[in-house]
Amino acid sequence: MFSAAEAEQLILTLVQPTDTVETINLANVSSCLGRVLAEPVTSALDFPHWDNSAMDGYAVRASDVQRSPVTLQIVEEIPAGKLPQKSIEPGQAARILTGAMMPAGADTVVMQEETEQQGDRVTILQTAQSGSAAGSFVRQRGSFYRAGGELLRAGQVISPAEIALLAAAQQTQVQVYQRPRVAIISTGSELVRPDQSLQPGQIVDSNQYALTALVAQTGAIPVPLGIISDQRSAVKEAITAAMSQADLVISSGGVSVGDYDYVDQVLADLGATLHIRAVAVKPGKPLTVATLAVANRHQLYFGLPGNPASAMVGFWRFVAPAIAKLSGQPGPWSPDFVWATATTELRAGGQRETYLWGQLVAGATGYEFGQSAGSHSSGNLVNLANTTGLGVVPQGDHQIAIGQSVRVLKVG
Ligand code: AMP
Ligand code: MG
User: What is the pTM of this model?
Assistant: First the structure.
C-alpha cells in the first residue's frame, strides 16, 4: 500500500497539464479570476510611464536647493494629468501634485510641508532634513518595470492584483488555459437525490454536491453526472460516457472490497491501468487511481470511497493537486501544509496517516488547530461544517497532545 506522500507523487507524474488555450476579456473581471495565464504578459509601457512626483510640493533643480532657506520663482502649476509646459531653469520651481509628470529641467521634488509660498515665489525651508538630494520624491520612469520585460509569467493564476496589473498595462485580452472539465459520478444503489423522498435504508447522495463544490473551488468546470446504480453494466456505461466528455473523472463509492464494488473491475474491463488501489490514510484508504487512453491522451480517473468524509479528504489530499497541475498551474501542486499548535488532543490508530478535520486559526504567535467536536467516523459529515484544516497524525503515532505541533492541511 502506498503512503500518502508516495501516492501524491505518483498521481502528479500521471497528470498531463492542459495545453488548450482560450482568450478572455478583462472587461469581464469575474470570469478572469482564477484563470491561469497560458503565456507571459509583457507591456510596451514603462512603469512609471514617465518621471512623476511622489508628493504634493515643488519640482526643483537639486543644485538650487543645496542650501536653505532659498527662494525660487514658481513658473507653473502641474496637477496630475497635465503636461508640463515649461522647462525649469536655475532659480525656478513648479508647483507639482502627486502623480504629476515632472517638468524638464527639474530633477527633485521638495514636499509642500517644508516650504512656504507667497504669490509666485516659494521658500524652501529645510532642505538639509528634507532629503533634497537629486531625485528625491521623484518616481523615475521605468524604475518599477521596463517595457518589454516579463510583467506576468505563464502559469500565473489571475487574482485581484494581477487583474490590476493587466488593466494598468492595458492588456484587455489575455490568453489562458481552458478550464479542465471534471466529471463526477456517484455510485450506489442506495443513493437518492436531495429532492427525492427518502425511503428506509436509502442514503442521500451528498458526495455529488460536495465534489461539485470542491471542483468548482479549484477553478475547474464540474460536470455532475448523477447517480449510477451498483450494476456492472451501468457503471461501465457511466464511466465510458464520463471519460468521453471530461478531462478528469471522479467517482465516489464502489472501490472497496464489497460484492457490489465494480469500479476497479470496470476500469480493468475498459483497458485502464490501475496505478493505485489503496493508500495508507484514514479516512479514505480505498482509493483508485487509474489512467485510460482516450484519443491520444491518458485520462486520469479517481475512484474515491463513498463515505462522505473519506471522499472529501481524498479530494483535498489527492485530487486537488492533480487538478492544479492539470489546469496549467506551475506548481508546486501539493496541498498547503502548515505547522500549528494543537489546541485539542488528536488521536489516531497508528496504522495509517490520519486526517482529523477541524479549525485552523491564526493565533497571536502562529497557527492553532483544534479538531471538530463529535465523531470523526468517515460516515459522519455533520461535523465537517466549518472545516478549515485537516490535522495530520503521522503513521505510527497514536496521539498529539494539546500544545504540541501538528501538521495541518489548509482547506477552503
Ligand atoms: P462504498 O464506498 O460504496 O462502500 O460506500 C461507503 C458508504 O458511503 C456507504 O454507507 C454509502 O452509502 C456511503 N455513500 C456512498 N456514496 C455516497 C454518496 N454519493 N453520498 C453519500 N454517501 C455515500
Ligand atoms: Mg457503494
Answer: 0.92
